[in-house]
Amino acid sequence: MGMTLINLAQAKVGTAHVIGKIDTTDTDMKAFLFSLGCYEGEKVTVVSVLAENYVINVKDARYSIDRELAEAILVEE
Fold this sequence. Notes:
This protein is of the alpha+beta class. It is 21% helix and 44% strand. It has two helices and six strands. The chain has a six-stranded antiparallel beta sheet with strand order 1-6-2-3-4-5. A hairpin with a 2-residue loop joins strand 3 and strand 4. The longest helix is centred in the middle third of the chain and has 10 residues. It is globular.
């Protein structure tokens, strides 16, 4: 495939990215992200970054997540 994955904390603000992988062994974190609509193949956009909080847009909804969650979401560059 040859696609490059970066974590959401490194993603450019305002650019839509496709989630390639949820990179965590924490099942609670995976379940939480899945409940927000963050799973492979879904589009996600970082709307803004304030301190360690990332406002993301997934499925026409906005959520605020911390850096740990943002780093667990790997997106196609």
